[in-house]
Write a structure and sequence with these properties.
- Keywords: DNA-binding, Transcription, Transcription regulation.
- Pfam families: GntR.
- This is GntR family transcriptional regulator.
- By secondary structure, this protein is mainly α.
- It folds into 2 domains: 71 residues, Arc Repressor Mutant, subunit A; 35 residues, no CATH class.
- The protein has 6 helices and 2 strands; from the N terminus they run αααββααα.
- Strand 1 and strand 2 form a beta hairpin.
- Helix 1 crosses helix 3 and helix 2 packs across helix 3.
- The longest helix has 18 residues.
- The protein is elongated and about 50 Å long.
């Protein structure tokens, strides 16, 4: 599998990386159990910051596309193919859009929404 990063693309590099890995899994180019390059190796190969690759790997692990096996590395998750089409970012945006629409319908101002959101994001659940 070849990953190509377009630095002129407005899509963040970590998102480009995630999308290409998800596409490769969905198209059977990365079958279950396939080892992935180390964060450092992939960052060097793509000439990007290792923190960018680490962020992509962390989010792919959250989405059950890859799994980390400690010092042995990262591998394609056994259930990866069934999770490739789940987009938590899109789902989050949809949920927040619905919530904001409900609040506005009740007369809550944008400023009040921002203050409440900021307060909740800074609190510990």
């Amino acid at each position: 599998m070849e990953i190509v990063i377009n630095i002129d693309d407005p899509t963040p590099v970590f998102t480009q990386l995630m999308e290409q890995i998800k596409t490769a899994v969905a198209n059977n180019h990365l079958p279950e159990g396939t080892p992935l390059p180390s964060i450092r190796q992939l960052a060097n190969d793509l000439e990007v910051n290792s923190k960018t690759v680490a962020k992509a790997y962390k989010l792919l692990e959250r989405d059950n596309i890859i799994q980390s096996r400690g010092y042995r590395g990262s591998f394609v998750h056994p259930d990866a193919k069934s999770h490739c089409h789940i987009d938590l970012s899109q789902w989050t945006t949809e949920m927040l859009t619905d919530c904001i629409a409900t609040l506005r319908a009740k007369g809550v101002t944008d400023s009040e929404i921002r203050v409440a959101f900021g307060s909740l994001m800074n609190s510990k659940f």
